[in-house]
Backbone:
């Protein structure tokens, strides 16, 4: 049985959702897949902006006797104005909703970009510290209703949107308004540089990525300061970022070595790097600080995992083109206790598309872990 859940949404700051219907509804949405027999455990799969109502694990988990929820935040399908702190509020609303429904155990799965979010959530649920967004706006998470969960799962996940964005940012772009203006010495698509890429090139490349991100952040703060003087109280503006899918690991599989094939989820990196539909091209000033700025974003997965105290399972696909083995290790190694497990999914791609045997393996592993940890009520 599948039930659509309309979960009352905690208020955010300002208008950050285009749809007036969505704002009036005041809800975030979840898809509850019920087990045949009553389950007092709910497993919740979440991502900051992806639509998880039809997530591939929901049916298999329900078939194995565990109720499963695919949860969307208010930013479903559009992260251009996303505020990570509001995503935390949305997860908190869903956990509270499920607790009120009588679920004794709730386990949170962060898939892909959900890894950093779920770590951020549980950290703030256990010991809240964040009183504002990086731009100084509400919400104050120390005053929010954030019920802790009983277990965490990081599934084919990276450590945080700002971290992975910086790893993907194209440092060869020298004109933020014209991506064709490129520095050949920092161009991963110039065959003179590789692949394979030398250690010296990668070191320069990583430093230049960080420098470009910080230049964008400096300009964002300048623009926000200018808006403080706006005569009509305008508080935010949109802007465009070119070149956001340019991690050398996409072409050189000896870097962060795994079973993956060269490429990305969106096709060849040289094309995906500039496609409008790929990561973080469209953003706003305030969203940039909360979501993409590596020096400002509160959503640092390893940092927050180090503040949590619940059983934690980290699973990663050895053929994943997006979330690499070092991502999984950074999450696993940050966990401050021994009740943790790191599980490779051999041959697993990012979403296990066309891999039904591996979907079954992941579901079996999850349910077995729940039983072992006493989380299957």
Residues:
């Amino acid at each position: 049985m599948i039930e659509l859940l309309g979960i009352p949404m905690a208020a955010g700051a300002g208008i950050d959702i285009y749809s007036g219907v969505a704002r009036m509804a005041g809800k975030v949405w979840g898809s509850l897949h019920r087990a045949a027999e009553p389950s007092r455990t709910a497993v919740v799969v979440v991502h900051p902006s992806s639509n998880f109502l039809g997530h591939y694990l929901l049916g298999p988990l329900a078939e194995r006797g565990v109720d499963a929820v695919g949860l969307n935040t208010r930013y479903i399908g559009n992260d251009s104005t996303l505020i990570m702190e509001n995503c935390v509020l949305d997860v908190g609303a869903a956990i509270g909703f499920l607790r009120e429904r009588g679920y004794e155990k709730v386990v949170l799965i962060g898939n892909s970009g959900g890894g950093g979010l779920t770590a951020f959530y549980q950290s703030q649920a256990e010991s809240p510290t964040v009183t504002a967004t990086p731009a100084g706006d509400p919400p104050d998470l120390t005053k929010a209703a954030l019920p802790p969960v009983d277990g965490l799962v990081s599934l084919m996940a990276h450590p945080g949107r700002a971290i992975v964005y910086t790893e993907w940012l194209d440092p060869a772009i020298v004109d933020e308004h014209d991506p064709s203006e490129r520095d050949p010495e920092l161009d991963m698509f110039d065959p003179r540089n590789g692949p394979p890429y030398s250690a010296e090139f990668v070191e320069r490349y990583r430093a230049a990525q960080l420098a470009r991100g910080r230049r964008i952040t400096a300009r964002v703060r300048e623009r926000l300061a200018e808006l403080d003087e706006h005569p009509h109280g305008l508080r935010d503006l949109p802007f465009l970022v070119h070149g956001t899918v340019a991690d050398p690991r996409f072409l050189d599989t000896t870097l962060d070595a795994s079973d993956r094939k060269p490429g990305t989820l969106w096709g060849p990196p040289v094309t995906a790097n500039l496609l409008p539909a790929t990561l973080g091209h469209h953003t706003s000033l305030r969203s940039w600080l909360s979501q993409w700025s590596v020096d400002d974003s509160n959503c640092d997965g390893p940092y927050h995992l180090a503040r949590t105290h619940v059983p934690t399972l980290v699973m990663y696909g050895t053929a994943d083109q997006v979330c690499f083995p070092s991502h999984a290790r950074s999450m696993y190694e940050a966990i401050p206790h021994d009740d943790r497990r790191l599980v490779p999914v051999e041959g697993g791609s990012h979403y296990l598309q066309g891999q039904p045997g591996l979907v079954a393996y992941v579901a079996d592993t999850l349910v077995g872990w729940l039983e072992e940890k006493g989380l299957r009520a």
Remarks:
- The chain is about 35% helix and 15% strand.
- The first strand starts at residue 2 and ends at 8.
- The radius of gyration is 20 Å.
- The mean pLDDT is 96.
